[in-house]
């Protein structure tokens, strides 16, 4: 834009000083304006005209609250191009408003004040924040408890305090910020800001797949638990893991992130991205059935046939009956042996037996836990015998080492309610290869083949068990032929 050389009068305000006027031509440059101002004010000896900083404003001097108008000295208002024409920068000058704010730089020969470093008091503040309440709040009071203001505000240096985004949709309000944080130039939670708050203010980016969310979830959940847990002396060391081979759940939902405390998993999280389309209601139902419901039912009054219970056997084996069965052993060798047996059952497609889902160092986890209930009529008895004999036929046909169960009794047969009314053989703890010299002296001679207690025996002890199943069931309508057949099985000489 072409301009003439008509002079204009600009009122200037020296920062931390007074106002004055400068008359200069429209066609002069900003550098010319700096030289004219330089002659008008008092500056240190080693400061030159080019070092002056100028801001273009338009405000009545009477409206200024002080001679330090920091709010007007913005990046947008600063005049940075020295060759720019005065007329192109200041136009329409008709009154005595302040049009230029001038700031003189600190002389380089003068010592520059070094701001003191705030003392880091993170540990002290967190200890006050993580204090346990005197007692657990009632359920009705829990919401109010969580909404209570913290016992102490987190002090932050001004440079950190003002990094919180306030006043827009992506940030928080000033009031919300002031509930939890306070400015303090002398003491602040430096470690807390650098390790946690900074990542919450400027979170990691993420994409559409689950793995891209891990950094974001870690900065929000994992880091919070680690930092606050570290300063709580009553809380043991937390060990975090993700997608671990340690089986920390008893169903098919493998949690992505787990927290281990002394080999116990008190916290697990199934992480999902926004693109995950799984039916959340079905997932919550499965979690309730697999984790919450067994605990609730186990607290109910006992009945004749409990669905959920924990059994501690005489050999110290712990059996947890839920929707699946968990067996815990003191002897690691027993776990290894059961893995071998169940592996052979699966490899040979043995039907009507339970199945090993997975194992850990001291436990095995089995599926197909249903109701332990004896047949109530002849039809159900025959169905049970068909299923168990089919299972035993496959076990006794495994080559080169056939397998015998050795513990055929009604408590080890469960009923699977489906359209086929299947009966399933379970509890392979005493299963071994046939023949075997391992004696089971702890067994009762009334309920088991006598040979297992005194001498070397083979798979015929399972046939003895089939006969004893018929003889021990409480069904009155058994035919004489079936009764005679069962007696012949469990009272015959197994040496034949």
UniProtKB/TrEMBL annotation:
Domain Protein kinase intervals: 222-496
InterPro entries, sorted: Crinkler_N (IPR045379), Kinase-like_dom_sf (IPR011009), Prot_kinase_dom (IPR000719)
Keyword annotations from UniProtKB, A to Z: Secreted
Top-level taxon: Eukaryota
GO CC entries: extracellular region; host cell
Transmembrane segments: none
Name of the protein described by the UniProt record: Protein kinase domain-containing protein
Species whose genome carries this gene: Rhizophagus irregularis (strain DAOM 197198w) (Glomus intraradices)
Lineage: Eukaryota, Fungi, Fungi incertae sedis, Mucoromycota, Glomeromycotina
């Amino acid at each position: 834009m072409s301009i003439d050389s008509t002079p204009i009068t600009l009122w200037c305000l020296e920062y931390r000083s007074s106002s004055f006027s400068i008359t200069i031509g429209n066609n002069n440059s900003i550098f010319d304006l700096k030289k004219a101002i330089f002659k008008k004010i008092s500056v240190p000896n080693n400061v030159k005209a080019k070092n002056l900083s100028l801001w273009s404003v338009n405000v009545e001097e009477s409206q200024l609250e002080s001679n330090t108008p920091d709010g007007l000295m913005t990046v947008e208002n600063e005049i940075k191009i020295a060759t720019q024409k005065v007329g192109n920068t200041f136009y329409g000058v008709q009154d005595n408003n302040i049009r230029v704010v001038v700031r003189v730089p600190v002389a380089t020969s003068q010592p520059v004040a070094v701001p003191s470093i705030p003392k880091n008091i993170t540990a002290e503040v967190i200890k006050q924040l993580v204090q346990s309440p005197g007692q657990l709040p009632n359920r009705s009071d829990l919401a109010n408890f969580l909404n209570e203001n913290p016992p102490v505000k987190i002090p932050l240096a001004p440079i950190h305090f003002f990094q919180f985004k306030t006043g827009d949709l992506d940030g928080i309000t000033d009031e919300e910020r002031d509930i939890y944080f306070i400015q303090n130039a002398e003491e602040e939670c430096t470690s807390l800001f650098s390790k946690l708050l900074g990542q919450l203010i400027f979170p990691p980016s993420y994409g559409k797949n689950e793995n891209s969310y891990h950094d974001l979830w870690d900065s929000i959940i994992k880091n919070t638990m680690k930092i606050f847990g570290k300063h709580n002396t009553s809380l043991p060391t937390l060990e975090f893991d993700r997608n671990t081979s340690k089986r920390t759940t008893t169903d098919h939902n493998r949690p992505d992130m787990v927290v281990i405390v002394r080999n116990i998993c008190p916290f697990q999280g199934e992480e999902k991205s926004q693109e995950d389309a799984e039916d959340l209601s079905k997932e919550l139902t499965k979690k309730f059935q697999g984790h919450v419901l067994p605990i609730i039912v186990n607290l109910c009054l006992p009945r004749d046939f409990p669905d959920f219970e924990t059994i501690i056997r005489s050999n110290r084996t712990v059996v947890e009956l839920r929707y699946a069965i968990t067996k815990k052993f003191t002897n690691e060798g027993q776990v290894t042996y059961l893995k071998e047996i169940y592996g052979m059952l699966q490899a040979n497609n043995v039907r009507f037996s339970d199945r090993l889902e997975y194992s850990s160092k001291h436990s095995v986890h089995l599926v197909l836990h249903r109701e332990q209930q004896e047949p109530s009529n002849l039809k159900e008895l025959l169905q049970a015998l068909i299923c168990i004999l089919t299972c035993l036929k496959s076990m006794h046909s495994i080559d080169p080492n056939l397998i015998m169960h050795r513990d055929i009794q009604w408590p080890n047969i469960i009923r699977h309610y489906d359209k086929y009314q299947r009966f399933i053989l379970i509890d392979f703890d005493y299963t071994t290869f046939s023949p075997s010299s391992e004696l089971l002296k702890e067994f009762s001679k009334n309920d088991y083949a006598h040979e297992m207690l005194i001498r070397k025996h083979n798979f015929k002890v399972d046939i003895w068990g089939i006969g004893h199943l018929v003889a021990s069931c409480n069904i009155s309508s058994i035919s004489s032929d079936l009764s005679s057949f069962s007696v012949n099985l469990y009272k015959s000489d197994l040496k034949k």
